[in-house]
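Below sits my pick:
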Amino acid sequence: MDRDPRGGHNRKKVNEDFFKIWSPKMAYVLGFIYADGAVEDCRDSSRTCYLVLSNNDLDLLSDISKAMSAEKSVQIKQPRLTKFKGKEYWCKTSYVVRIGNKKIYEDLIQLGLCPRKSLVIQLPELPEQFFSYFLRGYFDGDGCINIEKTKKNRMNIIFTSGSKIFIEQLASKIQSACPILKSSISNGNGAFQLRYNWKNALIVADYMYRDIKTTPYLKYKYNKYIDYMSVRG
């Protein structure tokens, strides 16, 4: 669809049917949005709706934009101090991509997203064959790999969300997809963490990183996993 010269409907070119058909790339990007994205209904002020993607890794946002055939326009957020619950935190340089498109917004609403989603999201219904890609997208947005600095040098996989029900549903879905023995959910600083330790972390990572070349992925997290596996032998 061409741009609206008034700037109200579709300000950047994008594949507005991207979220209509399930695919590995679509599932990955949806998972990433559930973690590190937002949808905004701005029709009262600018006659359109937005998908907003943010991350500290410019290459990842570029790869996601390419997957969506989106005309990339990146906003740079400089390092800054921010406050959360009375504490100050130093934020690194980050990048933001805003895509104005009503159809994409409406498709994402149908897929379970909503404005100000952090505390209320639930796991969407998705075909089983695409869950690993969704999981990897979510992990790249709100997950981490932790290597214990001990003699055993064990790896942990952690997923984080402000929504307790989402984390519980995610744990249940992973349990049904992988032969996991044990996981734990904790709550701290207003966020819930789903943690897999050692052997269970290896099972989750192996499941999550299969077919790695079929979608965008956050290279430094994947390389951290590969480096760990090469040392572990």
